[in-house]
Amino acid sequence: MGLFSSTKNHMPVEGKTVLITGASEGMGLSASIQLSQKGANIILVSRNVGRLEEALLKVKSAAKSPSTQKFTYISADVSEPDYAGAVIAEAIAWNGGSAPDIVWCVAGLSTPLLWVEDDNALAAARRNMDVNYFGAAEMSRAILREWLSPENKPDPSNKAEPKHVIFTASVLALFAVVGYAPYTPSKWALRGLADTLAMELSLYPDHPVKVHVVYPATITSPGFERENKTKPEITVELEKEEPPETPDTVAQRSIEGLERGEYYVTISFLGRLMRCGIMGGSPRNNWFFDTVLGWFIPVVYYFVLRSMNAQIVRFARRNGHPSGYKKTS
Ligand SMILES: NC(=O)C1=CN([C@@H]2O[C@H](COP(=O)(O)OP(=O)(O)OC[C@H]3O[C@@H](n4cnc5c(N)ncnc54)[C@H](OP(=O)(O)O)[C@@H]3O)[C@@H](O)[C@H]2O)C=CC1
Ligand SMILES: CCCCCCCCCCCCCCCC(=O)[C@@H](N)CO
Fold this sequence. Notes:
By secondary structure, the chain is of the alpha/beta class. The protein has one domain (17-324): Rossmann fold, CATH 3.40.50. 45% of the residues lie in helices and 11% in strands. α4 links the parallel β4 and β5. It starts with 16 loop residues before the first strand and ends in a 10-residue tail after the last helix. It binds NADPH dihydro-nicotinamide-adenine-dinucleotide phosphate (NDP) and 3-Dehydrosphinganine. NADPH dihydro-nicotinamide-adenine-dinucleotide phosphate binds at residues 21-28, 46-48, 51, 77-79, 106-110, 131-132, 168, 170, 216, 218-219, 221-224, 247.
């Protein structure tokens, strides 16, 4: 977070234990496999046990040192109130009494729809909030209470690496797009929580912990196939601006950003522009470049928004009042 970047790896994982939610499919599975290849012990968390079993085999067979690394899964629903304490307790018991060193909240879902026309809008918004926001919020609180408790003060002679808690948002938390009303606020909420925690963590100078937020654009995952079933046509049109990436690529670029020590990690060029466009009072990855780039983004947005809104108006003229659109859900 200094003026210039360094080449140090800020998140070494070899021999560390990483807990990942949403780890049975999509980006979470890819991240688990890649961290296994780098020598981490992995705890996979999601709901469906059959998919967790399959994922565990893949993550195991990617291990850098199969004789020393260990792997397990815990089935849990991150939308259940108070789920996270039990997950962390089970993880600690499995890990010989030590808490995981890194917790990455990836579990999420999206229910694209038109806010005004769709009868499911508010139910979908609550579900998106429960999984995407509260799922990650509860997990962060459970692990931070463990890491930051006075009994768990790291031995200063031991040069402990910082712990890491990582949230997974979306570029939609940096730039909103029509059709994502139930989802976008849940990802913006994660940003608000992360910025607050980044400051709160300074109250614990003897317990080094870093918080991060990853902002992927479209990921060609099983979740993307599901969300496309209800996605409004105009949303499909607009999001073509940002090309989809595979779960493997998104996981790889996320890990690279975390290794560079970034606070907000973006995956693409547009994502980086969007990040510099919203910085406000958020911590910067690089104070010089992020600030200078940030000066130009309002000008870019003048043209981007003009063109997008014109595209939406053309769509509206072609398709008539939205109450007449073909029902997607
Ligand atoms: N796909 C996209 O285009 C984008 C996605 N994102 C975000 O990135 C993250 C990963 O997305 P993606 O790769 O598409 O994920 P997928 O939808 O493909 O996979 C979701 C994973 O989360 C688990 N999961 C879902 N709901 C719950 C729950 N209630 N409790 C526990 N686990 C749950 C699923 O397993 P199970 O169902 O068994 O529980 C699965 O392992 C999400 O946070 C998503 O919002 C961000 C930008 C773009
Ligand atoms: C200065 C910057 C210019 C900005 C250009 C705007 C381009 C719009 C691209 C929108 C991409 C939306 C991806 C959604 C991913 C997602 O989170 C969902 N698939 C999950 O449900």
